[in-house]
Amino acid sequence: MKAAAITPLVVEDPAALAESAARWTGERVQRAVAERGACYLALAGGETPRGCYQRLAQPPYREALPWARVFVYWSDERQVPLDDPASNFAMAKAALLDHVPIPAEQIVPLVGDPAPALRRVPADAQGRPRFDVIHLGLGEDGHTASLFPGSDALNERQAPVRAIHDAPKPPPDRLTLTLPVLNAARAVLFMVQGAGKRDALARVLRRDPALPASHVQPADGELQFIIDRAALRS
Question: Is the pTM of this model over 0.85?
Fold first, then answer.
């Protein structure tokens, strides 16, 4: 059966998107810590999430959130040095992680063989890592994380992470969480901004199966799109 279309939260501009995404994330971090004692969070790369992370690094979130109980992972990573400007880790470190008191041992880059680190994430009934919050972006081609159209990684049903060696945009070598892990999450947030995303976003919101992002639908969790008005097809 075809998944139902999605109604996004539409905000005016990138600043409003950053604010709304930070508020949404903060609420779920607090809920996870209150209910389970910790929050397992997977961050995204790209320019759109940067605004959210910069906002989380400022008041009131910097002081109010239980950062000491947050465990940080990534939904995907480019296989470059962690201090490379193309690194998703480097972006999140500069925008957020250098400014909030998360213990260093609770920040887990997606590098090398990530399987042992992912085993620290509480598992669901099927043994998959169950993140409390996963952040995702959307590419103009409909990719999300490093799951690109036509990739055989979209067919992965067991492994929590897949190596990608032929990404159609540089750098070609990446690691990505797989759809079973994305869909095991308690909450998934897509952040989308800019007119360049209009066509892909419209197709994903109506669940066009040709686009990888359309296959993200948590089995027992929430899915939220926060988009700016420029990304909305009129």
Answer: yes
